[in-house]
Amino acid sequence: MHIMDRTSLIAELNSRGLSEGTGSGPLYKRLAQALTGLIQEGLLKSGTALPGERDLAGALQIGRVTVRTAYRDLLASGVIESRHGSGTFVSQHVERIEQPLWRLSSFSADMRSRGREPAARILSRTISAPAPEESFLLGLGLDEPVLRLDRLRLADGQPLAIERAVVPIKFLGEDAVSEGSLYDALAAKGFKPVRAQQRLTAVTLDPTSASILTVKAGAPALLIERVSRLADQRVVEYTRSHYRGDAYDFVAELRIGDDL
């Protein structure tokens, strides 16, 4: 455990009146409340492994059914999560990020501006002819190769988004871009995008994407499709990104018209 070892956890729970015949209300509810309190106080951090039902029941000298019922309530409320084959853990909660829609910037730059450490993990990287839709969006001939780069974007080690970028090879070169900023790589070649159009759609995550983002299958997400252009209007990038719905708030600034 991050802050409390098993001995400290048991001692803390016992100090909160978790024994038969003491306190008021059902014992399982008091156990659930005690665990919730430890999480809210920061003593049990996100991702902390909790003792198994049998282990915790024996240490507290209470019934295993009591522990199972307390865990069931905490699972239902999302306070803890069960990982198949691994056990029970304090749920992973991410700090929500407010992302303005009126400014074009890279994921890496956004995270650094918030004091967080950005990272990228390559899921796949291929170079091939564009698909018909990509050819149309990028203004390319079907014989002009593109780089397709699928990456998991992280901040402070926390997975936040799955990004697929499609960029004409003529703007990057075949060896460019790995885990750093795509926009930095484009800028280094003299092709930094200056404007973009984005479309946001509410979606749910398929099992594979959810597993990569460490959330449950069917969890809400935001699909953002972006087409970025150079100053001369050439399209330099087409990106489809799935952002965790529990991590992002996208904000737009609106101007009130004179006719209102």
What does this 3D model show about the protein?
Pfam families: GntR, UTRA. With 260 residues, the protein is α+β, with helices and mostly antiparallel strands. The chain folds into two domains: 6-90, Orthogonal Bundle (Arc Repressor Mutant, subunit A), CATH 1.10.10.10; 97-251, Chorismate lyase-like (Chorismate lyase), CATH 3.40.1410.10. It is built from nine helices and eleven strands. The strands form three sheets. The protein has a six-stranded antiparallel β-sheet with strand order 5-6-7-10-9-8. A three-stranded antiparallel β-sheet has the order 1-3-2. A hairpin with a 3-residue loop joins strand 2 (80-83) and strand 3 (87-90). Helix 2 packs across helix 4 (64-76). The longest helix is centred in the N-terminal third of the chain and has 14 residues, at 27-40. The radius of gyration is 24 Å and the shape is elongated. The relative contact order is 0.11. The mean pLDDT is 84.
